[in-house]
Amino acid sequence: MKIALVDSGIGLLAAAAAVRRLRPDADLVLSSDPDSMPWGPRTPEDVSAHAVAAAEAAAAHRPDALVVACNTASVHALPALRERFEPGLPVIGTVPAIKPAAAAGGHVAIWATPATTGSAYQRRLIADFAGGTPVTEVPCPGLADAVQWDQPAAVADAIAAAAARTPDTVTAVVLGCTHYELVGDAIRTALESSGTGPLTLHGSAPAVAAQALRRLGLAPDPAAPATGTLTVLLSGRAEPLPAAALSYAQGRLLAPVAAGH
To answer: Which keywords does this Swiss-Prot/TrEMBL entry list (predicted)?
Structure first.
C-alpha cells in the first residue's frame, strides 16, 4: 500500500503522521511545493495548477491513493485533481473539522489563514455543518509561514495575536490550516493562558487518514510491522525530509524512515 500526500509545504506532515500511526506498513510519498509557496495568496487557477503539478510528481511513484493535505488546495483544486486522476487514483480532500466541533455544542472558533477567513467557502461550511452553534472566525496572519520555516518567535507571536482575537467563551477550536496542526500544543497553551478553556482542538489529519484507508478498503492496523517507506518530493525533486520538519513531533515520527528503505 502506498499513499501520496500533496501540500504547498510541511503542513502535510500532520496527515502523513496520522496515516503512519494507523498503518506503519504504508509507504508514503510526500509531495510539497516550497518553490512556489504560499499558495493562499494565489488565484484559484494558479493554486490548481501548482496542486496538479505536485500531484503529478507524486503520481509518478504509482501510489494507491492521493491525499490533498492542504485546505487551500482542497478548496480550489479538488475538481481538477479528481478529473485528472480518478477513478484510477482515489483523491481525498481536506475539510476543516467544523461538524465534529459543533456537535459537542458550546462556542466554536475557526483559526484559518486570512484568505480563508470570511471566504464564501468557509461561510458555506459553517452554514452546512455548524447546526446553529455559535462560530467565530479567527484570521491567523503569518502563522502558516512561520510554521513552514521553523521560526519559533514568529510562531509564538502569531499564535498570541490569534489567541487575543479568540473570545474567552470558546470551548472548541477548529484548526483550519494543516500547518496549524503541527503547533497544536502551543495553540492550546496560549489559549488557556489567555483565559480560554478548557477547550478541545479539532484538526483534520485523523479523519483524512481514516478516509484514505476507507477509500482503499483497508482497516487501521497500528500494530502492523513498521515497514513503510518514505519518499519526499520538493517541487518535484527527490530530497531528504526538510530540516524544519524535524522541529515538529509529526516530522520526527516520519524521520527515521529513509526514502526507499
So the answer is: Isomerase
pLDDT tens profile 138-189: 999 999 999 999 999 999 999 999 999 999 999 999 999 999 999 999 999 9
* Intervals of the chain under pLDDT 50: 258-261
187 and 113, same domain (yes or no)? yes
Do residue 87 and residue 103 come from a single domain?
A: no
Q: Quote the domain boundaries for residue 146.
A: 98-202
Active centre residues (catalytic): 70, 177
pLDDT at 82: 95
Domain boundary among 169, 186, 202: 202
93 CB-near residues (< 8 Å, 6+ apart) = 68, 74, 78
Total domains, the chain:
2
Residue 259 lies in a domain: no
Q: Whole-prediction pTM value?
A: 0.92
Residues 102 and 191 reside in one and the same domain: yes
**3-class SS letters over the chain:** CEEEEECCCCCHHHHHHHHHHHCCCCEEEEEECCCCCCCCCCCHHHHHHHHHHHHHHHHCCCCCEEEECCHHHHHHHHHHHHHHHCCCCCEECCCCCHHHHHHCCCCEEEEECCCCCCCHHHHHHHHHHCCCCCEEEEECCCHHHHHHCCCHHHHHHHHHHHHHCCCCCCCEEEECCHHHHHHHHHHHHHHHHCCCCCCEEECCHHHHHHHHHHHCCCCCCCCCCCCCCEEEEECCEECCCCHHHHHCHHHHHHCCCCCCC
The predicted pLDDT at position 197 comes to 65
Give the length of the chain.
261
